[in-house]
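User: Some background: our group keeps a shared notebook of sequences we're curious about, and every so often someone picks one and asks for a predicted structure to add to the entry. Today it's my turn. The entry only has the sequence so far, pasted here. Could you supply the structure so I can complete it?
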Amino acid sequence: MDQDYPVYPYLGVIKKVVEQPIAFPPQHQEQAPGLEWPMVPRPIFDYAGFTGSGKLKGKVAIITGGDSGIGRAVAVAFAKEGADLTIVYLNEEFDAKETKQYVELFNINCLLIQGDLRDPATSEQAVHRTIEKYGRLDIVVNNAAVQPYTKDIMDVSNEQLEDTFRTNVYPLFYMVKASLPYLKKGSSIINTASRVAYEGDKNVIDYSASKGAVVSFTRSMALSLVDKGIRVNGVAPGPAWTPLTVSTYPANHVATLGTDIPIGRAAQPFEIAPAFVYLATDTSLYVTGQVVHVNGGIIRNS
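Assistant: Of course. Here's the predicted structure to add to the notebook entry:
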């Protein structure tokens, strides 16, 4: 795709917080981890009522999976706070270009890097090009993931199991190792976990296990890097209206997404992004090794 895609300034933007949809039209995508542009309705990735206050001005963030879903909402929230961005994506070129065009409306720079994070060279390239362009790196958001749907552990092939962990867990090691020489005191690493790391989900067994690994990695790296003044935390979203969801679950499941949790609906991506902003800024200097649960009222013990 060589052409430039038009910006849709009001697409995926909410002017004021109002009652969100409780249910969505049945739909399913075969491509994993999914595309944002075909979803009906489009996810809401920006809240126009949040203007930002320069909390990240002068800082640079890498966001994996920043082309769509929660990653896109985080990119927009960071851009509003003044951060320049590097977005790493797999093959979702339309979504990635649309995100780049949108975040640049906030007068920041955005570098797109296409690559497969299962290959450690992708993380190395992303960091190298980020330093080459911006001269610094302050925030790393490990967000990219796949979520295969399985009814039984016997359906989890060895190939699928390996792919899930190579996509959801290995790149955290690769990206942190590539980034660490450039991170300094005050830097922040934020990993996207999930509610299923704590409660499990019989329909996404290998995904749930991989997100449990993300939580353990977050806690271990926080202890490992605390003496360097680098904080490591996570965010565990509940059900959310994202491409990952529609590429995972059958259409009939999508139609009832989130209706069984206390708030009674799935989150829109813009409702999850503020947790990442908090963990990226100096307002959370005393927070490390923690996972922030943004899950619509599901009570957790840890």
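Suggested note for the entry: The domain at 13-294 is CATH 3.40.50.720 (Rossmann fold). The first strand starts at residue 13 and ends at 14.
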